Amino acid sequence: MAGIIDWLDERMGARALARRVANPDIPGGPRLQYVFGAVLVYLFLQEVVLGVLLALYYSPSTATAWASTAYIQDQVTAGWFLRGLHLHTSSAMVVLVVLHFVQVVWTGAYRRPRELIWWSGVLMGMIVLGFSMSGYLLPWDQNAYWGTQVRTGILGSLPGGEPLKTLAQGGGELGNLTVTRFYAIHVFLLPLATALLLAVHLIALRKHGVTPPARLDEAARAQTKPYWPYQRVLDVGAMAVTGAALIAMTVYTHGAQLYAPADPTTAFVARPEWNFLFLYQLVKFFEGPLQIVATAIIPGAVTAALFALPLLDRAPDRSPRRRIWVLAFVGAVMAGVVALTAIAIVDDAGNEKYQKAHEAALQDAARARALAAEGVPALAATVVWENDPDFKVRALFKEHCATCHTIEGKGGQEAPSFDGYSERRWLFDLVRDPTAKRFFGGTKEHNAMEPLPASDVSDEDLWATVEYLYSLRGDAKDIDDAKASRGKALWDDTLECNGCHELERKAEGAAPTLAGRGTLEWIQRVIADSSAPDLFADAAEMPKYKDKLSEDEIAALAQFIVEQGAPASTSEEDATP
Amino acid sequence: MSDRDREPQPPSDDAGAGGPEDPSRRRALAIGVSVLGGGLVVAPLVPALGFVGFPLRGAVTSAGGDFIAAGSRAQFGPTIPIKVDLYADRRDAWAVERQVKIGSCWVLERDGELKAFSTVCPHLGCAIEYDEEASAFRCPCHRSEFDLDGTPVEGPSPRGLDTLEVKQDAGLVAIRYQRFRQGVGEKVEA
Q: Tell me, what's the ipTM?
């Protein structure tokens, strides 16, 4: 270790740098009351480390924030501990900010020439509350949701606050953009702002040194010692005590609470984090149009007074006796905060209704988290394909048709396949052998139509017949007229198909009429009710869908089935394998 | 720390440096600072390591494992492999996705027996395609080629296509979807 330090010292003057930056003299010697700032820096760094760790598992969206937090809390090794420590450390920071603030006000350390230290400190104190407020939302549990609802509501109720509220929430209501915004603020903006302000704070502090006691007599002056190691040991000792207390507190409380997932449709008795209870209580005192007194005027006035403190304090020296009014003002504010917090706590303790609601909320939380152990159902981004109308009609087909009909090689074989449906090739194969599995081989009562082998009708004659049948659809534009008229002659004079099949629309026969057969409209009618007298009549096997599906659904299915024939061949040459 | 003791004290603008220094006291304080400071770092470090290393303790994502219905036996023939998508629940950290496509396989009949090849290339995990013209399986990433038995013919794949377990019952086929380690000669479940 010493070797490494020597090496660095030789090359960059590490020791001189360390002395210059971090080893000022402490006038009057080290004191316990100087430790608060150092402890705050330590707590901030601990929060940064814990925050980075939590970010390894946390996922900021309304669908995943609660689920990932429950995962951290109940599944990941030591997750409950690190999350709890993160929360308790943030509470400790609020406490330390107050102690640091009281010490600084008492010693008058805000006075010229230390205004920058004071202003950066006040801002950082507010940022600590900002961390608390933004982090509060991130678990997206009931408490987070309803607590934030109230806060953004307050923001919106201020004059001109509505656009601010929309901006903060990322929209008119709490949602995905609220989570991502608060997350970005919590993990990027506030830490960055803290780092910058802390730099100003420490550089200015290094310039002016620790504020010595108001009256430094010769005896006290003789006690002056360098920071290292005398004040440092007090600082580190205080950090260690704080750190140990936080670990003990985290273990004792088993970390932080996680309520049931945020549900905008249920009631929840929300309470702010303890460090905002005073404002919550204050708001209760001011009703209706006076609410702004509690939400903006009083907090705003106090904040403004704090910022102006170095300018307002004109006392000739830092002696507390000469600054009675400053101490009285700050003391009154602190007493007010403590009193309001106490009232809020006592109120709730005696509020049976609140106690009951809270008990129920805890039960909900336990139940929800036990269920989360099985995984929180989620949708992968690939479900976006389900928006595709093609997906919807396929889903319909799968549900209602695929048990008997085949498309793309998949499905049942109890009814004709739709691959190449009603195209010439399909018709050719059907007429050759309707008893094939691909056609009516699997359909129970459909055995009336007999195969027509090549020994009876040549391929050439059958293609001609198919061309004629195809022309009967009425919607085909690529008919080979010569071939079709030869087919018509065969149909009329040679073949015996017309014994069962009629050729006029709506004509009733022993088998479906072939006029318009295979068209969109025809398929729609078959889906709706295939037992119509001009369709399959008594031989109909298919369920009637006119009562099961809407007209739009039937139309979509019919269109889908028509398309199964579309890419297939349009002429004999292409069609013949 | 002994070096520091010998160095002159930095000048102070506020007050003179304090009384006589006691090196052994300074040393004791320095050790105290180191011990306490070390404790501050180590105490949260132990749980933090467990936290970060959580995915090493067991599968965070999981899917399949059981036999999944893959359709009727009749649709599969000996010459052209048919791609079958397998659907099951998938667990991914906190989330569970119900009945999503967890993988695919190529199914065909070889020597009267039904074979299912995982579409995951044993080399580096790209999706294997079937090349109809060549009657061969190909990986589009690194040009591995496999014949219809899944045997590697060309390219960098260290082993043949991974077969998946196939079960048949009353004309229906079920396939057990698994993933295997990539880039090694032996087929070992991942």
A: 0.78
